[in-house]
Amino acid sequence: MTAAEFLYEVVGRRRDVRSEFTGEPVDPEVLRRVLTAAHQAPSVGLSQPWDFVLVEDEETRRAFHGHVRAERARFAGSLTGPAAKVFDGIKVEGVLDAPLSIVVTYDPARGAPAVLGRHAIADAGLYSVCLAIQNLWLTATAEGLGVGWVSFYREEFVRELLGIPEHVRPVAWLCVGPVERLADVPDLERAGWRSRIALDEVLHTERW
Ligand SMILES: Cc1cc2nc3c(=O)[nH]c(=O)nc-3n(C[C@H](O)[C@H](O)[C@H](O)COP(=O)(O)O)c2cc1C
Question: What is the DSSP secondary-structure string of the chain?
């Protein structure tokens, strides 16, 4: 397989994981490689506005898990009809199944005030953090690890739980660990929540 073929294969194989964690620990050397890849992401003005908080402590993960359950219930309460029924069967996190959580944050003050390229688009800082997350996600996939992004939380709760400074935003709570296998089809598609759409539906030429 060429490097290009391997990269496309990993991109296609990557899944959001909630149920397939084996519970085994993450090899520290593998973790270091994956974090190094995340840290090599492009960033607006080379601001590198991310931090990574590694959370293994079960008590901390349990506290977060309780919060996620409450937020899940809040979202479920907003649903009606068939969506409510489908959502009922959907698992939205593997916080206690995965041995490690990696919380990725955004620090808008890093490199500020003169962040080259952010003067007109404040969100460019957040985009940069998401690219670090994607690097982490893809290299973790290549290493045989599963990653599950959890966003059923209030930022203040995570900030308080992990002692994150007031001006720093938690962007993602990632559940990470070895997996038996990765599903071929996204969980939400299998559950009947939504399906992937064809590329041609989102492709525009010259103008929208
Ligand atoms: C910003 C973001 C937030 C997400 N939050 C959650 C979440 O809270 N719970 C969850 O189960 N999946 C979450 N996901 C995963 C998506 O549901 C998943 O990426 C999508 O269904 C496509 O599946 P795939 O990643 O396996 O291709 C999130 C993904 C992104 C990019």
Answer: --HHHHHHHHHHH--B-SS-B--PPPPHHHHHHHHHHHHTS--GGG---EEEEEE--HHHHHHHHHHHHHHHHHHHHT--HHHHHHHHT-----TTTSSEEEEEEE-TTTT-S--TT-SS-TTHHHHHHHHHHHHHHHHHHHTTEEEEEE--S-HHHHHHHHT--TTPEEEEEEEEEEBS---SS-HHHHTTS--PPPGGGS--SS--
